[in-house]
Prior knowledge:
- This protein is mainly α.
- It has three domains: 36 residues; 33 residues; 44 residues.
- 86% of the residues lie in helices and 0% in strands.
- The radius of gyration is 29 Å and the shape is elongated.
Amino acid sequence: MSDSPPESKEGSTSESVGFSERTSEAMNKVNETLSKIDWTQMGKYGKAAGIIAVVILAQVLIKIVIDTINFFPILPGLLELLGVVVLCQWSWQNLTTSEKRSVVFEKVQNLRQEYLG
């Protein structure tokens, strides 16, 4: 019984040394690979990767905010009510007469033409 704990300690020490060695080897390989890359050619790809990283970060932050809002029982209902009020107000201002409706329709068509071609 007294022999098994020291053996497990020795095994964990050798495992941790092996893990740290493997980690350092992997990091050395990654550093060697990164040093071989011509970073002057990576402008376009770097921008794309940065944009993707920012979008992912923004989505995570938005999810955190929405989960926090949903944690409080009354806030989601109030926000839905606020959305309905804003929609009704916008509709009243922009859709009550045929002239206003045609202006909105033209704006939508112009945006569609601009973005979809």
